[in-house]
Amino acid sequence: MALAGGTWPPLREVAGVPLPAATVDNWSQIQDFEAQPDDLLICTYPKSGTTWIQETVDMIEQGGDVERCQRAAIQHRHPFLEWARPPQPSGVDRAAEMPSPRVLRTQLPTRLLPPSFWENNCKFFYVARNAKDCMVSYFHFQRMNHSLPDPGTWEEYFETWVSGKVAWASWFEHVKGWWEIREKFQVLFLFYEDIKRDPKQEIQKVMRFMGKNLDGPVLDRIVQETTFEKMKANPMTNRSTAPKWILDQSISPFMRKGTVGDWKNHLTVAQNERFDEIYRQKMEGTSIDFCMEL
Ligand code: A3P
Q1: Residue 113's pLDDT band (boundaries 50, 70, 90)?
Q2: What is the ipTM, given to two decimal places?
Q3: 247 neighbors 144 (Cβ within 8 angstroms)
Q4: Is the minimum distance from the CB of 231 to ligand 1 under 6 angstroms?
Q5: Which reaction(s) are listed as its catalytic activity (predicted)?
Q6: Contact, 47 vs 198, CB < 8 A?
Q7: Would you call 148 helix, strand, or coil by DSSP?
Q8: With a 6 A CB cut-off, is 255 part of the ligand 1 pocket?
Q9: pLDDT per residue as tens digits for the range 244-277
Q10: Is the CB of 56 within 6 Å of ligand 1?
Q11: Which residue, 175, 148, 98, 130, is CA-closest to 272?
Q12: Could you identify which of 98, 107, 151, 271 might form a hypothetical disulfide with 267, taking C-beta atoms 3.0 to 4.6 angstroms apart as the criterion?
């Protein structure tokens, strides 16, 4: 339960990964989750474009029918596996009630994913976003999200984020983990920056991966409906249905900027140099390459 002033219990850890306390309390239910072979799992590190890919996948599933995508707020359309806030049903409870084929989502790193997803060779979407924009977005999200710790100043948050002391832990481990298994399992590995640059091409990839074939006008509608401007104005995607004592959009809107390169407005020259050095060390030996500006 929320405490007075909107302060929530501090994060706790599972195998070194900080997670909301209620998620940790519910951990055995999450690990025992029974995936089905036709489950589709949307996987992201926080603030990488989860809502964007969710809306895209749903629009494809609904054949471009805008009204059907209005049936519920985005956070209720795809069960969030590790979600727990008793007495509400947990993400696992919601998934169990959902008819197949299910679209689910998670922010877990590969090493914490319930084993049944690997055993059933499920399909995974992974959306990666460049580390600096992710950090900036997460900072503003923690400022307005009272279910996560107060981020402190930008200078303080920089240190917290690069050391992975944030919910769902280190961006570096998360991205590397999913990148490394992308060819061993059925992973459609997408980049936020690519979707921004050429949404139609990336949406077509998503469509094919889902085994769907939608005609040109439907595809064009999906491109239009999933722009930042449309999703910012859409109450079913902009999180305006969440109570202010959880998400205070007067501090920072959930649909904040939706751009590539906002990091340049936040990182000082010294922070940027330090970040590049940390990045080089942590990502050494990885072939992944990010676009930092468009
Ligand atoms: P910013 O804070 O940089 O604006 P998530 O859904 O994983 O929490 O990610 C949220 C980030 O994705 C926010 O980034 C949000 O604005 C951005 N976003 C959401 N929908 C988008 C869209 N249609 N186009 C571009 N960015 C989008």
Answers
A1: very high
A2: 0.99
A3: yes
A4: yes
A5: 4-ethylphenol + 3'-phosphoadenylyl sulfate = 4-ethylphenyl sulfate + adenosine 3',5'-bisphosphate + H(+)
A6: no
A7: coil
A8: yes
A9: 999 999 999 999 999 999 999 999 999 999 999 9
A10: no
A11: 130
A12: 271
pLDDT band, residue 2 (cuts 50/70/90): very low
Counting from 1 in the atom list of ligand 1, the atom nearest the Cα of 46 is 7
Query: Can you tell me the distance from the alpha carbon of 262 to that of 252, in angstroms, rounded to the nearest whole number?
Result: 15
Nearest ligand 1 atom to the CA of 54 is: 6
The residue count for the chain? 294
* Residue among 43, 51, 53, 129 to mutate when testing ligand 1 (max atoms within 8 A of CB): 51
> Own/partner pairs for 20-23, CB < 8 Å, 24+ apart?
20/84, 20/147, 20/148, 20/167, 22/84, 22/85, 22/86, 23/82, 23/83, 23/84
Region of residue 254 (phi > 0: left; psi between -120 and 50: alpha; otherwise: beta): alpha
What's at 186, amino acid-wise? Answer: Q
Identity at 57, one-letter amino acid code: V
Q: Is the peptide bond before 101 cis (omega within 30 degrees of 0)?
A: yes
Interatomic CA distance for residues 188 and 40, integer angstroms: 11
